[in-house]
Design a protein that fits this description.
Keywords: DNA-binding, Transcription, Transcription regulation. Pfam families: HTH_6, SIS. The chain is α/β, with parallel strands linked by helices. It has 2 domains: 80 residues, Arc Repressor Mutant, subunit A; 163 residues, Glucose-6-phosphate isomerase like protein, domain 1 (Rossmann fold, 3-Layer(aba) Sandwich), CATH 3.40.50.10490. The chain is 61% helix and 9% strand. Strands 2-1-3-4-5 form a 5-stranded parallel beta sheet, with helices on both faces. Strand 4, helix 11 and strand 5 form a beta-alpha-beta unit.
Length: 282
């Protein structure tokens, strides 16, 4: 794994000092050859030992090994992404922007895939297909993905209960049992209403799956399984787009794995689409 990719993937779980080091490395990767560990520490106003410990926490012997690995990764990326011979150097700003956004989304998807081990994804899929009912809740922007997942699971024949209103979900959760699953969407995992619903669901002995950023948060603490999303950008209007793209890709993967779990699901999906299409195009 690229050291820069590893730093991005681990950033949300780092301490405040470690995040300062990580952000500096990510923003100044091309300049690191001119920085010793002492110079880096002085630039950030921290101790040299903090830089060394940061490097060792990532699996390197020390800062020189980390710096060398980042340099190698940058060299590989530069060699593997040459400009096509027929592409004009002064391409349309729209083309450059579209390519930059696509690369950022791809990076967010790669980071997200790396922090969600295969066994973790399989555990989520198993919990969904084994559940009597799947309760799904998300507020605001998170509700869009919650509704989308609820719709698709319904199309494959899985019984779902989806609400964007926490009061309605709390009322529905009163009927939950030990064979039910709650999937709760919250980017930052701090909404008190969703934490209350999770505690209520836990009291009914149901299983909980949280969908949040890759960070320590109350909602994730309540969950039996967690789907983690990693997406970072210096522009506040771009970062949510990366989060939504990475999240949607993971939900698509989960849906495909659910359909592969049983041929009945795929057959039910096709039949359901036919019925829906008859309503849309009678």
């Amino acid at each position: 794994m690229s050291p820069l990719l590893r730093i991005r993937a681990e950033r949300d779980r780092m301490s405040a000092i470690e995040r300062r080091i990580a952000d500096f490395l990510l923003d100044n990767a091309h300049l690191l050859r001119d920085y010793s560990s002492q110079q880096l520490a002085s630039a950030l106003g921290i101790s040299q030992s903090s830089v060394v410990k940061f490097s060792q926490k990532l699996g390197f012997k020390g800062y020189p090994d980390l710096k060398f690995s980042i340099g190698e990764a940058l060299a590989r990326e530069g060699a593997g992404d040459p400009r096509p011979p027929d592409q004009e150097p002064d391409a349309s700003p729209h083309v450059s922007l579209a390519e930059s956004l696509w690369r950022a989304k791809t990076l967010a998807e790669q980071e997200t895939r790396l922090i969600n081990p295969l066994e973790q994804i399989d555990a989520i899929v198993t919990a969904i297909v084994d559940a009597d009912r799947v309760f799904i809740c998300g507020l605001g922007q998170d509700g869009i993905h919650a509704r989308g997942l609820g719709l698709r699971l319904s199309l494959v024949g899985i019984s779902t209960v989806e609400h964007a209103d926490p009061v309605l979900m709390a009322a529905s959760a009163c009927s939950a049992g030990p064979d039910d699953v709650l999937i709760v969407f919250s980017e930052h995992g701090r909404q008190p209403e969703l934490c209350h619903i999770s505690r209520q669901f836990r009291a009914r002995r149901g299983r909980i799956i949280s969908v949040t950023r890759h960070s320590a948060n109350p909602l994730r603490a309540h969950a039996d399984a967690a789907l983690l999303i990693s997406a970072h950008d210096e522009h506040p209007h771009v970062e949510p787009l990366l989060y939504q793209a990475a999240l949607q890709h993971m939900l698509d993967l989960i849906l495909v794995l659910v359909c592969q779990h049983s041929p009945d699901y795929a057959a039910h999906y096709g039949s359901s689409l036919e019925h829906v299409q008859q309503l849309l195009d009678p």
